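Quick question, first post here. What does this chain look like in 3D?
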Amino acid sequence: MLNLKRDLRDRHLIAVMGEADLVTGMLLAGCGGCGSAVNSNSSTQNTNYIINDPQTTSVKQLEEAFRVFTCVRTDIAILIVSQPTADRIRHLIDDHQGAWLPAILEVPGKDTTYDPEKDSMLKRINRLCGQ
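> Answer (accepted):
Ran it through. Tokens below.
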């Protein structure tokens, strides 16, 4: 049974997955935070962000970070994902069954415009509203 008050009280961090500019901006805005490590081999267990650099960040690393932020960590309330990053792990975002904890928000990338046709959560909301 979902204990709503406990879940809301425990979830207080914003996690970020995106390009360096987005992550840096969010960290400078005060969104940085560390959670308790479950597995010390994973850097995303201790931080609430991952920088997506297509030359150095593999899809496997992004997939692992997404799973940690959405399934393992219980202190994440909102996951902000840039759309270029979301495109690299679209299959996981589309398959994500968590209705609202954490809330997944897609934002435009630095050099791209927001495409609402790609946004999985917007599609889900439209479906729930009967559109």
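DSSP finds six helices and four strands in the chain.
The first strand starts at residue 13 and ends at 18.
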